[in-house]
């Protein structure tokens, strides 16, 4: 998942002066447009199910109480059967080397299709065709590329994201895609215990983080990070046995084993009710968090997941 974006070959950038001018105008336009619609529709929007009253052991994140992200640079994603809009957290190094999606936006092109978004929609469409129904669980939601891929298809999503800057962008996407009644967000890290754990956020890239300090440096090629305390909760504590779960996606920069251990009851469901599992399996990051792909595979076999296949750095696992 870390390599989900594909490069544009022979890409020619605009001159820095022109790029800055166009970018500033674009930001002003997008920000003005967003605040216009937000203010003119605030009464209607407040009646949606963004802040859900529920029996969850921790409260969902409240987008209405969250300071607005800025600047807002958002666009629709290309080449998906069920397209969605999301907001960038990583702007690149402006003005010399902007994020490639900013360059695409200035050229009038949609954002690149994230591989995980296409995968989520393909899996869910297959499940829907077979008559299955349930929720989607997105652990390590980042800016919502998996959550929104599922929500625009009509599936309810529980999204876990501990990084505040990403939560702001998820709130943008909930509004842009009109999926407030479908996406419930938790400002927390899924893990194998309830409490607080230390996350390491990167200086200059606060939208990315990892539990392991070494893992953060490996994943994002940074030598500087800051430690923050975030809430942690096992999925088994939050998802009741009666709740059907179709799919779990986990991308937590090496903390996958701990997330899976905290979902042992959920993963132990009988084959017809067990969720389809997608998780990142990067041996370097797992090692930085004192685990391994073998440890994960052994654990999954112990709860009945005997069929796993590799898709790049992602593993897809099901019960037969």
Radius of gyration (Å): 19 Å
The H-and-E topology, N to C, reads as: HHEEEEHHEHEHEEEEHEHEHHEHHEE
> Main β-sheet, in a few words?
7 strands, mixed
- Tell me the number of helical segments per DSSP (H or I, 4 or more residues long): 12
Poorly predicted parts: 2-9, 28-53
* Helical/strand content category: alpha/beta
Shape: globular
Looking across the biggest beta sheet, what order are the strands in? 7-6-5-12-13-15-14
Residues in β-strands, percent: 15-25%
**Count of strand segments:** 15
Kindly state the percentage of residues in helix: 25-40%
Determine the mean pLDDT: 82
Tell me the distance between the termini: 25 Å
Description of the structure:
- The structure is a single chain.
- This protein has 320 residues and is an alpha/beta fold.
- The chain has helices at 16-40, 42-46, 100-106, 115-129, 145-151, 164-176, 213-220, 235-238, 256-261, 264-267, 283-288, 293-302, and strands spanning 74-76, 85-87, 92-93, 97-98, 135-139, 157-160, 183-186, 189-190, 195-202, 205-210, 225-233, 245-250, 276-280, 307-311, 314-318.
- The chain contains 12 helices and 15 strands.
- The strands form 4 sheets. Strands 7-6-5-12-13-15-14 form a 7-stranded mixed β-sheet, with helices on one face.
- Helix 6 (164-176) links the parallel strand 6 (157-160) and strand 7.
- Helix 4 (115-129) runs parallel beside helix 5 (145-151).
- The longest helix has 25 residues, at 16-40.
- It is globular, with a radius of gyration of 19 Å.
- 42% of the residues are buried.
- Residues 2-9 and 28-53 have low confidence and may be disordered.
């Amino acid at each position: 998942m870390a390599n989900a974006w594909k490069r544009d070959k022979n890409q020619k950038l605009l001159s820095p002066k022109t790029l800055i001018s166009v970018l500033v105008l674009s930001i002003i336009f997008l920000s003005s447009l967003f605040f216009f619609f937000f203010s003119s529709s605030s009464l209607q929007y407040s009646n949606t199910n963004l802040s859900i009253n529920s029996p969850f052991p921790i409260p969902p994140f409240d987008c209405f109480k969250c300071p607005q992200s800025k600047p807002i640079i958002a666009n629709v994603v290309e080449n998906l059967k069920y397209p969605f809009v999301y907001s960038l957290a990583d702007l690149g190094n402006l003005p010399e080397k902007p994020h490639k999606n900013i360059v695409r936006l200035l050229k009038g092109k949609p954002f690149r299709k994230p591989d995980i978004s296409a995968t989520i929609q393909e899996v869910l469409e297959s499940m829907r065709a077979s008559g299955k129904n349930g929720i989607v669980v997105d652990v390590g939601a980042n800016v919502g590329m998996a959550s929104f891929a599922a929500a625009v298809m009509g599936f309810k999503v529980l999204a876990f994201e501990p990084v505040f800057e990403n939560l702001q962008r998820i709130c943008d996407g909930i509004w842009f895609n009109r999926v407030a009644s479908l996406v419930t967000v938790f400002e927390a890290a899924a893990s194998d215990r309830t409490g607080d754990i230390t996350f390491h956020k990167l200086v200059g890239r606060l939208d990315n983080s990892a539990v392991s300090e070494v893992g953060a440096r490996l994943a994002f090629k940074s030598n500087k990070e800051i430690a923050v305390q975030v809430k942690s909760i096992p999925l088994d504590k939050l998802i009741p046995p009666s709740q059907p779960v179709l799919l779990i996606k986990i991308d937590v920069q090496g903390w996958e084993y701990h997330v899976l251990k905290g979902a042992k009851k959920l993963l132990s469901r009988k084959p017809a009710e067990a969720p389809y599992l997608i998780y990142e399996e990067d041996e370097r990051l797992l090692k930085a968090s004192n685990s391994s792909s073998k440890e994960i595979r052994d654990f999954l076999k112990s709860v009945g997941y005997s069929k796993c296949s590799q898709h790049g750095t992602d593993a897809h696992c099901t019960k037969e």
